[in-house]
From TrEMBL:
SUPFAM superfamilies: Winged helix' DNA-binding domain (SSF46785). The keyword Translocase does not apply. Pfam families: PadR (PF03551). It comes from the Bacteria. InterPro entries: Tscrpt_reg_PadR_N (IPR005149), WH-like_DNA-bd_sf (IPR036388), WH_DNA-bd_sf (IPR036390). This is DNA-binding transcriptional regulator, PadR family. It comes from Streptomyces aidingensis. Keywords: DNA-binding. GO terms for molecular function: DNA binding.
Length: 177
């Protein structure tokens, strides 16, 4: 996800301080990976430099000055364009699993055990997400559904691969010869 576009989108609701942006981002998008303050301020600095935000005000108080940022027309245009642009589908997100299976087979290790261990981890995470989904708000439910559907697809691949291990091992043996 583009953090800069998410922060710009949050600014469309009105000017905010970096602290407020971080809190809003974390509430909506950062359940599993909250932003660091440094990341927010570095991103805001880049957006300011690129003319996508401007400083709407500065407040003095105890500690450093607090800048309030506002999105510019260029920033609004940039967010609108980003929202219209489809994301590139990434069909190989779990290619690491394939690599592990092939390397296990090539090295004579137990690829079936690797698949069983991975299946157990997927199922554990699916149970955790299902619990989280049942107690979450609509946004959390949608995030959990997205993750669950991806995990289900991975599980189907794990099952299919387990059923084809003998054929894959034979094929890899043919290539090595």
């Amino acid at each position: 996800m583009s953090i800069s576009h998410a922060l710009l989108g949050l600014l469309e609701a009105g000017p905010r301080h970096g602290y407020d942006l971080k809190r809003s981002y974390d509430e909506r998008f950062g359940h599993d990976k909250p932003l660091h303050y440094g990341q927010v301020y570095a991103t805001m600095s880049r957006l300011l430099k690129n003319g996508l935000v401007e400083v709407d005000g500065v407040e003095s108080g105890e500690g450093p000055e607090r800048k309030r940022y506002a999105i510019t027309e260029a920033g609004v245009t940039d967010v609108a364009q980003w929202l219209r642009t489809p994301e590139k589908p990434e069909p190989y997100l779990q290619s690491v699993l394939y690599t592990k299976v092939v390397l296990a087979l090539l090295s004579g290790r137990d690829a079936a055990a690797l698949l069983d261990t991975q299946r157990a981890e997927h199922l554990r995470l699916m149970r955790e997400l299902t619990r989280r989904k049942s107690g979450g708000d609509l946004a959390d439910q949608l995030v959990c559904d997205h993750a669950l559907f991806h995990l289900e697809a991975d599980l189907r691949w794990l099952e299919l691969t387990a059923a084809r291990l003998d054929r894959l091992a034979a094929r890899l043996g043919e290539r090595a010869a």
